[in-house]
Amino acid sequence: MAFQKGDIKLEGNIGNLNFYKTDDQYRVRQKVGKKNKNEINNIAERSKENASEFGRASSFAKEIRLAVKTAMKDHYELFYEPSHITRLNKRLHLILKADEVNERGKRFVSPVNLKLLKNFSLNADSPFKDVFLLPIEINYI
User: Fold this and answer.
1) Which of the 8 DSSP states describes residue 25?
2) Please, which contacts does 92-98 make with residues 24 or more away whose CB atoms are closer than 8 Å?
3) Which one of 50, 123, 129, 141 is least enclosed by Cβ atoms within 10 Å?
4) pLDDT by residue (tens digit) across 41-52?
5) Is residue 19 classed as helix, strand or coil in its secondary structure?
6) Are 88 and 46 in contact (CB under 8 A)?
């Protein structure tokens, strides 16, 4: 991914380049064409398995983020950090990979493996256990 370092601040498209702004940084990336149905069917089986598991882990991570945000209400913004989304997705993907029951591509986040979330922090500067002082109990069915 390219970063713009000069004084020219562009947003929009020029040819096959897409200029955009995230936070306070201006970035540029090359446009990617959409794949048709035949191209999708030709994707390697391993890639489909990886994409399936990544999507499953990301969806579960989103549910966790929404639950924490709902529980903490206005206090959630006090320690919000954009990088926690990536870190939580990564941790949930590791939890998903720890599923020894199902085969690759069909693995799920198992309640038994949720213990791997222990010591995870939503903010790199202040661990969650130091911010949220109430006891946390995880129940699953």
Assistant:
1) E
2) 92/57, 92/58, 92/60, 92/61, 92/64, 93/53, 93/54, 93/57, 95/57, 96/53, 96/56, 96/57, 96/60, 97/53
3) 141
4) 767 777 888 888
5) strand
6) no
